[in-house]
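Many introductory courses stop at the sequence. We go one step further.
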Amino acid sequence: MSEWPQLVVDRNMSDYLGLSRRDAGAGLAAGGSALLGAVLVNLWNFVQTFRARGFDSASIAEYRRGSEIIFLGMIVTPVVALIVATVVWRVVMSDKPDPLYGAVAGVVTAVGSLFIFAALIGFMFSLSQVSAGGLAGALSEFVFLTALIAVFGGMITLPVIAPIGAIVGYGYEWYLARR
């Protein structure tokens, strides 16, 4: 009798969203790996700032410059990666666990999360143009900032997040195949 409510919730949620536990588990694993990647990039930014200048008040002020985007990435990126990985596993992956496809899906999730994060940052910064009344200016600022963050952010973060995504995707599918 104690299993009945959970069985109904699982079946109804599964029917409603079309998600399986495997899809949701992949999303959770990707969210955790995105948080790890964001922390590593933030630590790298922190170390590179102090390596050149030392620990004085000017270098601490320099570290704070531009770190809002990196800090926002630590908050938003795991949520974005959770959603992207759930969709990728739901749409792309077959029902049979395959670690190699899991690695590819992990890289696709990492790259997709990067582009969606860049679009979110571009959208947030272009809102100031919308409030000023210039829709064309807001659209051009959105496109410019999204492209700028995606290209240069990708050059900086993809060497970190792509291997993490591949390892987590491979490991998740390997675990499911051995279970």
